[in-house]
Design brief:
By secondary structure, the chain is α+β, with helices and mostly antiparallel strands. It is built from 7 helices and 7 strands. A hairpin with a 2-residue loop joins strand 6 and strand 7. The radius of gyration is 18 Å and the shape is elongated.
Length: 166
């Protein structure tokens, strides 16, 4: 095999790995909504590394799979029984070897029986951090803040905006 062909195969292999990583990370993040909406604490918690963190100020910070599972098994059950859903937008992913960052919006939508329609009762900014391990990519942390006009929520998107400038 010629040196040019080896270089081309290596370049294609690297591009394929990057695409596969981006797809795996995107799939990981998009599994969150369905996992909590079906009320499956273990499925939701399994998205995180063992000591992962889910921070949703001002509500709470859950550290570790057990606490994350407890959040889903607790108050989320009332939400989903009342007719709520978690809708996440596509994830902007930035890779850095075995680490990655991602940003997206999340909406919590709720059925209003008396009015006969759905309402968005929460819109938030998300900053995710991921790590590749023996079992593939997992969430290291997710920070979720209400987009209520506060600068802290908008600043979560700073990494995404800076990456866009190259």
């Amino acid at each position: 095999m010629s040196e040019d062909l080896r270089a081309e195969v290596a370049a294609l292999s690297a591009r394929l790995r990057e695409l596969e990583d981006r797809q795996e990370i995107a799939q990981l993040a998009t599994r969150y909504g369905p996992a909590v909406d079906v009320g499956d604490p273990e499925a939701a918690a399994a998205l995180w590394v063992e000591d992962g963190v889910y921070a949703a100020p001002p509500y709470a910070v859950w550290t570790g799979r057990e606490e994350i599972a407890g959040m889903v098994a607790g108050g989320h059950q009332d939400l989903i029984r009342a007719g709520a859903g978690h809708v996440l937008t596509p994830l902007h992913v930035e890779l850095a070897g075995d680490e990655a960052y991602g940003w997206n919006h999340a909406m919590n939508v709720q059925w209003r029986e008396a009015e006969g329609h759905f309402v968005v009762f929460r819109l938030s900014a998300n900053e995710w951090r991921f790590r590749r391990g023996p079992a593939g990519w997992r969430v290291v942390s997710r920070v979720n803040r209400n987009l209520d006009g506060a600068a802290e929520a908008r600043e979560l998107f700073r990494g995404s905006a800076e990456a866009a400038r190259g």
